[in-house]
Amino acid sequence: MITPTQMRAARAMLDVPQGHVAEHLGIAANTLSKIESGQSDVSMSRMNDIQRFYEREGIAFTENDGVKWNKQQIIIYEGQEQFNAFMDDVYETAKTVGGEFCVFNVKPDNWIVMMGEDRYKNHSDRMAELGDKIKVKITAKEGNTNFISKEFAEYKWVPEEMFNAKSFYAYGDNIAFMDFNSEELMKSRILVLKHTDFASAFKILFNIAWKNVAKVPNI
Q1: What pTM was computed for the model?
Q2: Is 24 exposed, middle or buried (0-12, 13-18, 19+ CB in 10 A)?
C-alpha cells in the first residue's frame, strides 16, 4: 500500500499542488495534507484512490518507499475494490476524453457481482449522462439478453463458439485485458496498458468483427 512518503514524492514528481490532487480525488486539500503527513487514519479504499490517481499520471511505486516514472504505463487492478477503481478510470476517461469505447466478450453478470447492482446502476447513469460525448459498443455471447449498459451502449452478439471468459476493453488511449476468475470472481484481475497505438489497433480489429461477424440481437 502506498505510504505518505510516496504520496509526497509522487506529487513532487508531477509538480502539482495539494489542491490539484485533492480536487481530482474529491476531497478537501487540508484532508490530503493530513494524509500526506501521516496525521490521519485513512481507509484502504481512499489509499487505493490516491495510488490509482498517481498511477494514471504515470507514477510507479516500488519497495522501500520508492517512486519512479512508469515508462511502460501498465496498471494492474485486482479484486473487487480495485475493479471499482478501474470502472472509475473508465468513467473519468469518458468524461474528459470521450470518443469510442469498445468492449469485447462481455458476461454482464461478472460486472454486477464485482460492482454490486446499486454501484453499477450509478455507473450506468453517469455514463448515460455523457450523451453523444461517447460511443460505446459491446459484444456479448449470442443469446445473452442481459444488456445492463443499454442506457449508454449498443450491443451485438458474437457466435457462441467464438466467446470465452477473457474480456477486452479499449477506452481512450488504454486497452484493458480482463481476466475474470471463474472459481473466485472476487480475485479477478485487470491489466491496463496505456498505449495509444495498441488501443487504436484493437479498436480497428473490434470494428471489423463488429461489422462482419457480430450479429444484431433478434429481440
Answers
A1: 0.73
A2: middle
pLDDT digits (tens, 9 = 90+) for 56-81: 888 888 889 999 987 768 888 998 88
Task: Identify whether residues 13 and 55 lie together within a single domain.
Answer: yes
Query: What pLDDT, on a 0 to 100 scale, did the predictor assign at position 171?
Result: 97
Among 112, 133, 134, 132, smallest CA distance to 123 is for: 112
Indicate the residue among 69, 88, 117 that finishes a domain: 69
CB-CB contact of 119 with 85 (8 Å) = no
Neighbours of 44 (CB within 10 A): 9
What amino acid occupies position 28? A
Beta carbons within 8 Å of 127's beta carbon, 6+ residues apart = 91, 94, 134, 136, 149, 151, 152, 153
What whole-number distance in Å separates Cα of residue 194 and Cα of residue 55?
11
d(CA 130, CA 36): 33
Measured CA to CA, the distance from residue 186 to residue 31 in angstroms comes to 30
Domains of the chain: total: 2
User: What confidence category does residue 195 fall into, taking pLDDT thresholds of 50, 70 and 90?
Assistant: confident
